[in-house]
Amino acid sequence: MMTYRTVSGIAIAMVWWASTVVGVPFSDIYRKMMTQLPSSNRLPGVVEPLSLQNLIDGIERHDFEQIYFGDNRVITRSKDEDYTYITPINPYITTKLVDISLKNQLDPIFLPNMPTESPPDLLGGFINIFIVLSILRSVQMYAARLLSRRNNDRNQTEAYDPFMGMGMGGFGFMPPGVNSRNRDYTINTTLSDWAGSREVLVECAEIVTYLKNNTNYVNAGATIPKGILMEGPPGTGKTLLAKAIAGEADANFIAMAGSEFIEMYVGLGAQRVRNLFDEARRKSPCIIFIDEIDAIGRQRGGGGNMNTGSNEEKDQTLNQLLSEMDGFNTNDGILVLAATNRRDILDKALLRPGRFDRVIQIPLPDTSSRQDILELYLKNKVKGPEIDTLELAKITRGFSGAQLKNLLNEAAILVARRNDTTLGMPDIREALEKTLIGIKKTVDDRPADIKRRVAIHEVGHAFIVAKYPQYFDLQKVSIQASYSGVGGFTLFTEKDGFTEGGLYTKDFLVKRLMVAMGGKAAEAVFYGEDFVSVGATGDLNQANMLASDMIEKYGMGDKLNVFFKSPQSEPFTKYAEATKATIDREVTQLVKEAYHMAVELIRKNRDTLDILVDDLLAKTQVTNELYLPMVAAEVAEVAKAECDPGCML
Q1: Which of 195, 393, 501, 610 could bond to 370 as cystine, CB 3.0-4.6 Å?
Q2: Which of 458, 494, 523, 586 does the annotation list as catalytic?
Q3: Do residue 520 and residue 559 come from a single domain?
């Protein structure tokens, strides 16, 4: 049978092991444990028994330094602390002894109830603790394997110990520092790998110049911005620019995503921020890049009065980031780059000078920028002489740099599919249609009447586009079905003068509404209003959205010509019911007028549309060569009829 000392030794060993797991100092656990053990070996001085009468006499003579009550006994300590006395008592006289102690100015201390059972029960309690801690360790090891597997997927090579967490010991599920996640990269990217706005390149080149040689800036009294925020739509190359700046400046580069700071336990995200900046200070000069910073930089207080753990964790992480960027710590040689496409939701304290001193807007590329991007990504491809990058730039309006890169890659895949190596213009056009429309069906088994209805619908769109060449350029009309559910499509672009400047007129937008309603209008003219199909569902959605913008944002209504509706992100903005009803009426009126105008235009040119429909059915897809002569002749006739007798055409 094990002795009491053996049991205590085993228990202490278990507690020491538990302290290594939990992360609490062993001395604290041992001290707390010892206050609960009924061992007289730990009492100071010589321990002797004391009778009840001698106890009362000693209290009245003030012989004791301290008196303890607990476990049906009284423990007293002499003033010289050489002796400690133990007196068994009946619980019923405890109150009287307490009164005597207080009367003689001896403050009693009540000990918690101490276990009186045999040592094996104490061992059983520690065995239960051991089982619980073993379960917790098993959970930790399972989580560690998951994290290790994720790190292996990221090609991480450094060891990871889940029990070396930051701030919370073994329960943090966090690596000990930035290096353990291998966010320190070797950069081989330069600014020549990015194409787009030349003004953006100038801004980035200036940063590189300062990092490499800041003599001129220092002489001029200028300092490098502590933080630079790159804002722009997805795919415009914000991350690529950050890597290019680091590569050009030949500086250390540490990259993290904003979501990597957010953890389940409050305080761990803040610890991760501290470790990130500590690592950057050790590797100065260093560039820290935080992608999608809106994950941690959202405006604080967004959760209202609900102080949830998630909101508290995000707020603490943001507060730590604010402190590290512009606090008591020095950040010499550290540049913080961040990227977001939601600057509007970022905290104002994060955007102030001293933290993010400069904001670089990276917009979607314009025509010339798209041409530069296409030429950049065509360098590593064998291209045919007929490829016109300017024409491609015009028909890819609204594409980002990433979309243009993917477009050329899709075209190269089509070239490889036919066992060729030379990229031609038809390949790029086919890839563009695949990107916009989806995979086309090679076998069209639709009935003839369905094909004719689709042809009438698409010709309705195309004819109105060709009718207004001052606004639009028709590219292609097709009735070839695709697996995305599209029965046919009409491709057209807007004139550069409108798209680049962005100053759309009301007349232009009304014509855009007419184009959207052209398919439904053609079906109404050919089949009658009662036999219009549901194929115009997408057109109706597009037209009503545009009309809503015209009324709510652009002030192009009859009654609401100076009205502007606040963004939907403001949840407490309210309008009168009468105003809402007026908005609905004006939107409906705009769409109806555009629809009636489209119907009248198609009805007047019914004979021309018959020819276009038959040609489209015969060829499946046509370009603008067939439309331009017919529309040009009609425009000439109209101009001649409206010409004064003395004018010359």
Answers
A1: 393
A2: 458
A3: yes
